[in-house]
Specification:
Layout (H helix, E strand, L loop, with lengths): L9 E4 L17 E8 L11 H11 L5 H9 L4 H8 L4 E10 L1 E8 L4 E8 L5 E4 L22 E10 L5 E13 L2 E13 L13 E4 L13 H7 L7 E5 L8 E4 L8 E12 L2 E10 L2 E11 L6 E3 L1 H9 L4 E2 L9 E4 L6 E5 L2 E4 L4 E5 L2 E7 L1 E3 L13 E3 L1 H4 L2 E6 L4 E6 L5 E3 L1
Parallel strand pairs: 2-3, 5-10, 6-9, 15-24, 16-23
Antiparallel strand pairs: 1-3, 2-4, 2-12, 3-4, 3-12, 4-5, 4-8, 6-10, 7-8, 8-9, 11-12, 11-25, 13-14, 13-26, 14-15, 14-19, 16-24, 17-18, 18-22, 19-20, 20-27, 21-22, 25-26
Length: about 425
């Protein structure tokens, strides 16, 4: 939030159509939420939209403050904080892909239910919507009016999310009913914002709000995330949700309560969660043009992030291997370019299976036709605390190429091939 607030890549709208119900509804099988996608990173002339690229990077900064919540909620520092001090570094909801940068879908909140467009973010844990007290910063978004919902309960608590661009999201905490594709969570904690950050204004952020899908230990509210509430209330058969972000085939979706076999082929390769908080797993290695470049890397899987981001030394080594160079002056801190004619075959390995990043090349820079912008960004252009420098944040530029599975019960993340997408190894 992006959010974890991790949000950076190309958007695929998530259209989640939620069927409301005042009581939990038992679901016999998984349900898909269509999601929608919109991308503004590429101009009509195929050059990179520099301002959009910088905007999505700025939006990603928000998610990383969540490590501070881990210590507040659990009483112990997040392991990454310690490491960072020592090292630099079953149902479907259709999604809307906002230009492969942002994916969002539709849910229903309140009684009677009102539909909202929501960014589903595995890099954060809290759920918030714009409220009636929110002024110009919320213009264009659908407003949640707690007074119009008979199931809304004021918790008498406030909240505030600090973003990397210096702006905040703040407001009050409520409980209310939340419905997603036929399953309903009652007494779900949500934030009702009286102020939206600059990067959540409608021009940057088409969804109305954001739903975090990580773990409670990084919740600003210290409240159960929506998916965990659904599990605790017994309305899902399987403790699993999955994303398909690519616009190919049946289209992008969030699948609740299992996996959707028509969206992927072959086996799902799983890797264990190493720390509950974010969806934190070990990445075996990064392969560049057939050569293993980096090994054994801490990573966070974040659907709210547009790019892949990593510690500066590792990102620098990756671009050196393809003849790239720092583009801080040309674009913004953290960005790199590489010669467009150079081969850039990059893959990430999880659980012994390697998956490519075909969208690594974002396009060329206007006025610099031989310089192409890469979608892997150095963390020093992003992080605002020491903890994040230890992680690779795996966002849309990778996730758009795979079927990603988040197993809450098994504490693991899985990846599988999409139809007609080539897996490099396994």
């Amino acid at each position: 939030m992006r959010f974890t607030l991790i949000m950076a890549m190309v958007t695929v709208p998530f259209l989640v159509v939620a069927a409301p119900s005042p009581q939990p509804v038992k679901q016999k099988s998984g349900t898909a939420i269509p999601i929608r996608h919109r991308s503004r990173l590429i101009n009509d002339d195929k050059t990179v939209n520099i301002e959009a690229a910088k905007s999505h990077l700025a939006s990603s900064k928000a998610c990383f403050a969540a490590n501070l919540n881990f210590e507040k909620n659990t009483g112990t520092p997040h392991p990454s904080v310690v490491e960072g001090a020592q090292k630099r570094a079953a149902g479907g909801n259709a999604l809307t892909a906002d230009e492969n940068v942002l994916w969002y879908g539709t849910i229903a909140v309140g009684t009677p239910p009102v539909n909202y467009k929501i960014d589903f973010d595995t890099g954060s844990s809290d759920f918030f919507l714009p409220g009636v007290k929110c002024g110009p910063s919320c213009e264009g978004h659908k407003i949640y009016d707690e007074s119009a919902s008979s199931t809304a309960i004021d918790l008498g608590k406030t909240f505030s999310f600090a973003y990397g661009d210096g702006s905040n999201v703040e407001g009050d905490q409520y409980n209310d009913t939340v419905a997603i594709v036929g399953v309903t969570a009652t007494d779900q904690t949500l934030g009702v914002a009286s102020q939206y950050s600059t990067k959540l204004k409608f021009d940057y952020f088409p969804p109305d709000g954001l739903m975090g899908m990580a773990f409670q230990s990084i919740s600003q509210f210290n409240a159960m995330p929506v998916f965990q509430t659904l599990l605790s209330q017994g309305v899902l058969d399987e403790p699993v949700f999955a994303f398909k972000l690519a616009t190919t085939g049946p289209g992008p979706e969030l699948y609740i309560g299992g996996t959707n076999p028509i969206q992927y082929m072959g086996d799902i390769t799983y890797t264990a969660v190493t720390q509950q908080g974010h969806w934190q797993v070990n990445m075996d290695n990064i392969i560049v043009n057939g050569q293993t470049l980096l090994r054994n890397l801490n990573s966070i899987i974040g659907t709210g992030t547009t790019y892949v981001t990593g510690p500066r030394p590792g990102v620098d080594a990756l671009y050196q291997a393809i003849g790239g160079s720092d583009a801080s002056a040309l674009v913004a801190p953290g960005f790199y370019t590489f010669p467009c004619q150079n081969e850039a075959d990059i893959s990430f390995t999880f659980g012994g299976a390697s998956f490519g990043i075909p969208e690594f090349n974002l396009g060329y820079i206007a006025g610099h036709e031989d310089a192409c912008l890469g979608s892997i960004i150095a963390q020093d252009g992003l992080a605002n605390d020491n903890a994040i420098s230890a992680f690779w944040v795996i966002g849309g530029s990778f996730l758009n190429n795979v079927y990603s599975v988040f197993d809450v019960g098994g504490l693991r993340v899985g990846f599988a091939n999409l139809e007609n997408v080539f897996q490099i190894g396994g």
